[in-house]
Design brief:
Layout lengths: L1 E6 L11 H10 L3 E3 L11 H13 L4 E7 L1 H12 L4 E7 L26 H5 L2 E9 L7 H11 L2 E5 L10 H9 L1
Parallel strand pairs: 1-2, 1-3, 3-4, 4-5, 5-6
Helix pairs in contact: 1-6
Length: about 180
């Protein structure tokens, strides 16, 4: 059986944006979905998110897909870099590149997620497949960051027009389609 772990972004929750719809669609297709809520609100701390991701993995089956959105993409990549695990697929939606300069986003509200560059070559080999879904008109994280992280991970890059930062529930359908 397959499990999807859904990691929301900054100041989000499992009930915001497209996350509830994604869970609904995946459960309908027979998947188990673990979509934890992460603490910190407007001041998240990676070391508080890490054990929650670890707990989600402990509850998972053998085939694991991890999906991260926005800041959740950084948490996903950092978690994999710090742990010796293999996953089936990694999906990054509206992702950050591996730049420490991203620590200045939102006036440093989540600088601790970007306190060092990560070993992307190591992370690349921790998933059988990588998919990066980037918005051509992202108002929060420029599309260039999607291009860079996709290239570094050897990911399939899905460039989506007119999608801003993927905040509407309709994007769950696109994510599920890309997973098919």
């Amino acid at each position: 059986m397959a499990t999807t772990i859904d990691i929301h972004g900054y100041n989000g929750s499992s009930e915001s944006n497209w996350h509830p719809r994604l869970k609904e669609l995946l459960v309908e297709s027979g998947e188990t979905v673990i979509a934890p809520d992460f603490p910190g609100g407007r001041s998240p701390v990676y070391t508080q998110w890490e054990p929650i991701i670890a707990n989600a993995l402990e509850q998972s089956d053998d085939l694991v897909t991890m999906i991260g959105h926005s800041l959740g993409t950084r948490a996903l990549i950092r978690f994999l870099e710090e742990h010796d695990i293999q996953i089936d697929r990694g999906v990054l939606v509206g992702p950050f590149a591996n730049w420490t300069s991203n620590a200045s986003f939102r006036d440093g509200a989540y600088a601790n997620f970007f306190d060092r560059e990560l070993n992307i070559a190591k992370v690349r080999d921790m998933a059988k497949e990588w998919i990066v879904i980037g918005s051509l008109d992202d108002s929060r994280i420029p599309f260039e960051q999607s291009e860079v992280i996709a290239s570094e991970l050897g990911a399939r890059l899905v460039a989506v027009p007119d999608s801003d930062h993927f905040l509407d529930e309709k994007w769950a359908d696109l994510i599920v389609e890309e997973l098919s």
